[in-house]
Amino acid sequence: MARAPLLQLSDIALTYGGDPVFADLSLVIQPGDRVALVGRNGSGKSTLMKVMAGLVLPDAGTRVASPGVQVGYMEQDPSMEGFATLGDYAASGLDIDEAYKVDMVAEGLKFDPAGAVATASGGERRRAALAKLMAEAPELMLLDEPTNHLDIEAIAWLENELKTTRAAFVLISHDRAFLRALTRATLWIDRGAVRRAEQGFAGFEEWRDKIWEEEDQQRHKLNRKIKAEARWAVEGISARRTRNQGRVRALQDLRAEKAGQIQRQGTAAMAFDGGSTSGKKVVEAFGLTKAFDGKQIVQDFNLTVQRGDRIAFVGPNGVGKTTLIKMLLGQVAPDEGSVKLGTNLDIAIFDQSRAALNQDMTLWENLANDPELGVSGKSDQIMVRGQPKHVVGYLKEFLFDEAQARAPVRSLSGGEKARLLLARLMARESNLLILDEPTNDLDIETLDLLQDILGDYDGTVLLVSHDRDFLDRVATTTIAMEGNGQAVVYAGGWTDYRAQRGGDFTEAAVASKPLAKKDKATEKKSGAGLSFTERHRLESLPNVIETLGAEIAKLEELLSDPDLFTKQPAKFQKASDALVARQNALSDAEEEWLALEEKAG
Q1: Are 471 and 478 in contact (CB under 8 A)?
Q2: Is 1 exposed, middle or buried (0-12, 13-18, 19+ CB in 10 A)?
Q3: What pLDDT score does 9 carry?
Q4: Do residues 482 and 515 make contact, with C-beta atoms less than 8 angstroms apart?
Q5: Spatial CB neighbours of 338, under 8 Å, sequence gap ≥ 6
Q6: Contact between 359 and 77 (Cβ < 8 Å)
Q7: Beta strand ranges found along 430-531 (DSSP E)
Q8: Is-contact 56 47, C-beta < 8 A?
Q9: I want to staple 493 with a disulfide (CB 3.0 to 4.6 A). Which of 127, 472, 531, 533 is the partner?
Q10: Lowest-pLDDT choice from 249-253, 348-352, 486-490, 531-535
Q11: What's this model's pTM, rounded to 2 decimal places?
Q12: SS3 helix, strand, coil % of the chain, rounded to 5?
């Protein structure tokens, strides 16, 4: 016997003072559904989820939840007025004998239920909202960006909980690995229409591209038909005016059909300009040690950052990733050790807190009052990588329209704020990028573009992210901050780090197992003269050397083409520069390995 759907929307229409957000929208959520809800920033994903939750009433249409079905919604910005602690908020609505569930979920999500609401950060409030939903365990969970502000270990915990739940859920997320692991169906919002595919997110991009290809073919056929009919109208209308008015009207209908087609939104015109070339060595850190309030951040940490490196910093929230980066930049002094910055550095920073944006100022004012961009006051021009551009024209390149240009930043979605911050960042030249959680709230297409331009960026990148897919696509080196002052360097991205380490780490496991003192035999075997970090660096260098050797071989093969220089001189030059950089990096890596091997012996 077929079970009744959990939730059904029929002929939903919704308009926010302008073009319709949705028109004639219908969808059904069945028991056991695990659905990815995807679409561009601003396409209406969160709005649709609020309609599903019953928090936003549509202009037309009906929302029906089956009798007895509880629909739970995780808010991105929950109101906690009237609650003293995060735990009080998370437990509201639960019976007294169920309050223990909040503590269980809080442990997995890594937040303190006793934390005061008045002083809680945005991330802590969102984790409390997620804990509330998980503890309530409704039949249908609506999860809007649940992985934002979670570290990788908390994401893994949540992923496992959702894999084993019997509840249905609809999930909005930018985290591709999370979506691939959990979803079995996809709802795609595209230009006000919602399509459903009975396959998880793993098949989304292929499905989307096929639909777009079919649209392009239909548009091409329509254009050809309009041209043919228009030619007939010009050449024969005067001789057949009376008999063929129907055909003229048909031509008008074809033109109206074309005018009514909604064009796909393009991608933002994002680009980083490497500007002037930095020195070969960007940062050299020697014996860094730092502790805050008795908590060890790093201990005896050494690192050499070469020009062109893409270095990711991973680890639990609060372990000190941002602090370590600030030490490497000379912004925070270590307790012990030293940092030497390279020459000719132009540093650009993407701050996860979006602190560079004034929420009460308009988008225009946020760009036109930036001394780093060479503008102030009410200027309508900004300098974009050394060239003057009109503020509105530049904002349009990042998919903002003129009306948004004069709206306050606080009216933007999280993804739009991230895009505006990227616009500020990309207006200036740089050769060292600091990206602290850049992936939060960005849609899939913008993430794709960001990954591509980071691949083409001539400078150096230091990256903090909990997005495993993004780390795999961007990072060439991963620094795992594992607690108790341990910061270990691994070659490659997240998957490479996992493979080299041989399993997951958890903050609890590290914290509960202080480093044991080694006996003399163990010290001699592992290299008595090496620090903990140096031993791991010695173990990882062969992989680094092998990777560089493979890259050099590929570049040499590319440059062996005798026509490359004449047909594609820019590509030839870029490949030549990359070959020299890789050869220098290989030489440095081999010298470092020899020095560490000699020290260990």
Answers
A1: yes
A2: exposed
A3: 92
A4: no
A5: 285, 286, 287, 288
A6: no
A7: 432-436, 460-464, 477-483, 486-491
A8: yes
A9: 472
A10: 249-253
A11: 0.67
A12: 45, 20, 35
Per-residue pLDDT tens over the stretch 117-128: 888 877 888 889
Lowest model confidence (mean pLDDT) among 116-120, 121-125, 138-142, 152-156: 121-125
Mean pLDDT of 49-71: 92
pLDDT at 170: 95
Same fold, 7-206 and 281-514: yes
Q: What are phi and psi of 114, to 5 degrees?
A: -85, -5
Could you tell me which CATH number the domain at 281-514 has?
A: 3.40.50.300
Q: Which of 39, 18, 29 is nearest to 194 (CA)?
A: 39
The residue type of 153 is: E
First to last CA, the chain: 73
- Tell whether the model's pLDDT for residue 428 goes beyond 90: no
Characterize 34-44 residue by residue with b for buried, 16 or more Cβ atoms within 10 angstroms of its Cβ, and e for exposed.
bbbbbbbbbbb
From its phi and psi, is residue 265 left (phi > 0), alpha (psi between -120 and 50) or beta?
A: beta
Contacts 24+ apart (CB under 8 A), 267-271: 267/399, 267/445, 267/446, 267/449, 268/397, 268/398, 268/399, 268/419, 268/422, 268/446, 268/449, 269/397, 269/398, 270/398, 270/422, 270/426, 270/446, 270/449, 270/450, 270/453, 271/385, 271/426, 271/453
Q: What residue segments make up the domains of the chain, in order of their start?
A: 7-206, 281-514, 516-601
- Classify domain 516-601 at the CATH topology level: Helix Hairpins (1.10.287)
Give the alpha-carbon dihedral of 239, 243, 245, 246, to 10 degrees.
Answer: -140
Contact yes or no for 133/105 (Cβ under 8 A): no
- Stated as kind and residue range, the H or E segment containing 211 is helix 204-236
Three-state DSSP state, 436: strand
Distance of alpha carbon 399 from alpha carbon 377, whole angstroms: 24
Beta-carbon contacts of 192 under 8 Å, excluding residues fewer than 6 positions away, are: 19, 20, 21, 22, 23, 44, 262
- What gap in Å lies between CA 444 and CA 417, rounded to an integer? 15
Q: What is the DSSP letter of 30?
A: -
Q: What is the C-alpha to C-alpha distance for residues 493 and 310, in angstroms, rounded to an integer?
A: 9
> Would residue 540 be called left, alpha or beta, if left means φ above 0 and alpha means ψ between -120 and 50 degrees?
alpha
The upper half-sphere exposure of residue 256, i.e. CA atoms within 13 Å in the direction of its Cβ, equals 6
Query: 7-206 falls under which CATH superfamily?
Result: P-loop containing nucleotide triphosphate hydrolases (3.40.50.300)
Q: What six digits make up the tokens of 43? A: 């396409």
Collapse the DSSP code of 405 into the 3-class scheme (helix H, G, I; strand E, B; otherwise coil) and give the result.
helix
Unique residue bearing structure tokens 């990227």: 422
Of 157, 182, 188, nearest in space to 25 by CA? 188
Distance CA 513, CA 530 (A): 22
DSSP β-ladder status, 486-491 and 193-197? unpaired
